[in-house]
């Protein structure tokens, strides 16, 4: 499951980090990463929540780093950094879990149909 979480977090980070298209690929990136992780791990609902939480835990430092760098450039305060980081972490947990639920469910349906 750890490998699946790493894949999901890497996909999420890659889709957010691509300049220019990140405005389009950024919002659903956690869902796509969660879907790939959930389908790879054949996630049950409990595992899907763990995948979403693990993805957020893996991405909290890069997200906080980006907000910190933005605060240095544009003069945001520490509260804005914490609020922005917290909002992105919640977003990653919610969409990562939803994607893992759907990905795991699709794989489990395929295996039972065969």
Question: What are the main properties of this structure?
Answer:
114 residues, mainly alpha, 5 helices
In short:
The chain has five helices and no strands.
- Helix/strand structural class: mainly alpha
Instruction: Spell the H/E element sequence.
Output: HHHHH
Shape: elongated
C-alpha-based Rg, rounded: 15 Å
Distance between the termini: 24 Å
The stretches of 5 or more residues where confidence is low (pLDDT under 50) are: none
Q: Please state the average pLDDT score.
A: 91
User: Percent of residues in helical segments?
Assistant: over 70%
User: Beta-sheet strand percentage?
Assistant: under 5%
What does this entry look like structurally?
It is a single chain. This protein has 114 residues and is mainly α. It has one domain (2-113). It has 5 helices and no strands. It has helices at 2-17, 22-25, 29-41, 45-74, 78-113. α3 (29-41) crosses α5 and α4 (45-74) runs antiparallel to α5. The model has no long low-confidence stretch (mean pLDDT 91).
């Amino acid at each position: 499951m750890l490998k699946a979480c790493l894949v999901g977090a890497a996909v999420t980070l890659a889709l957010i980090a691509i300049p220019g298209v990140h405005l389009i690929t950024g919002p659903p990136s956690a869902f796509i990463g969660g879907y790939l992780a959930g389908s790879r791990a054949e996630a049950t609902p409990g595992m899907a929540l763990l995948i979403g939480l693990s993805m957020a835990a893996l991405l909290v430092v890069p997200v906080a780093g980006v907000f910190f760098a933005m605060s240095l450039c544009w003069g945001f305060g520490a509260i804005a950094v914490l609020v922005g980081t917290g909002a992105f972490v919640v977003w990653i947990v919610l969409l990562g879990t939803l994607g893992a639920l759907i990905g795991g469910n699709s794989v489990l349906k395929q295996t039972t149909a065969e």
